[in-house]
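Tokens in:
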């Protein structure tokens, strides 16, 4: 129950009440106005993270991303996924291999990449583009060699929805593919499949052969380079991309990241 002072209330009681009210309205310990202002300014100054959707086919570009982020002192998060998979909602940057980037993103050229055909390192196959096409279409199903019983072609294709598969489909231009071909879920899986099977024929992005020499050991690239297998390497930014993402793309185009990309990709 509150005590209501009257004219006869002693002065010491009124002074005590005023002191008590002042204590109740004081700020909690350690949260002065100056401290709160400093904390707010610090939080505002923190850079917005660069969140990248990186296609599995372009995994060799990861060191360039990481180098740029380190040089610019930017927080970086990289999500590896098939190219056609929608990126995380938080992604403000995508790397893209292809002629037609998705709508709603601004494209910046970084170079180019190409698909290559690979066989087992001891196979010794020599194919031209026409012969290779017949194998992919299933019109030729055995390797032509001096063996009494030529081995069947163990055909491996990239998974649908991947950037590598898009290059292969562009080359076939609607022609049917061999229906019983095996599917490799990633370039790494493709390299492993071809390395472990002397009769295998597969397809990987060219940069994988240089970027991952251990995985590529035991396979060889065929000297077949259709124009349809080559496509631009792009950096895609959201229209509202933060300055951090814009700065990282600048590094990929002209800075240390560009130097690393030049060592693995077409100009």
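Residues out:
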């Amino acid at each position: 129950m509150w005590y209501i002072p009257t004219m006869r209330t002693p002065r010491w009681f009124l002074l005590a009440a005023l002191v008590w009210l002042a204590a109740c309205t004081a700020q909690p310990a350690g949260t002065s106005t100056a401290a709160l202002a400093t904390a707010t300014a610090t939080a505002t100054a923190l850079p917005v993270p660069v969140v990248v959707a990186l296609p599995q086919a372009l995994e060799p570009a990861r060191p360039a991303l990481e180098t740029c982020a380190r040089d610019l002192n930017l927080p970086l998060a990289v999500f590896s996924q098939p190219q056609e998979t929608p990126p995380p909602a938080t992604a403000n940057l995508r790397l893209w291999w292809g002629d037609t980037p998705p709508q709603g993103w601004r494209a910046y050229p970084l170079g180019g990449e190409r698909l290559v055909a690979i066989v087992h390192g001891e196979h010794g196959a020599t194919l031209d583009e026409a012969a290779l096409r017949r194998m992919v279409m299933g019109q030729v199903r055995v390797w032509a060699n001096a063996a009494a019983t030529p081995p069947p072609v163990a055909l491996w294709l990239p998974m649908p929805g991947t950037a590598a598969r898009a290059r292969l489909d562009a080359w076939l231009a609607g022609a049917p593919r061999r229906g019983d071909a095996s599917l490799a879920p990633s370039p790494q899986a493709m390299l492993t499949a071809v390395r472990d099977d002397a009769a295998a024929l597969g397809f990987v992005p060219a940069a994988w052969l240089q970027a991952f020499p251990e995985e590529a050991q035991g396979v060889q690239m065929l000297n077949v380079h259709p124009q349809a297998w080559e496509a631009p390497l792009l950096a895609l930014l959201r229209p509202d991309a933060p300055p951090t993402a814009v700065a990282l793309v600048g590094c990929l185009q002209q800075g240390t990241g560009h130097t690393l990309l030049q060592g693995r990709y077409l100009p």
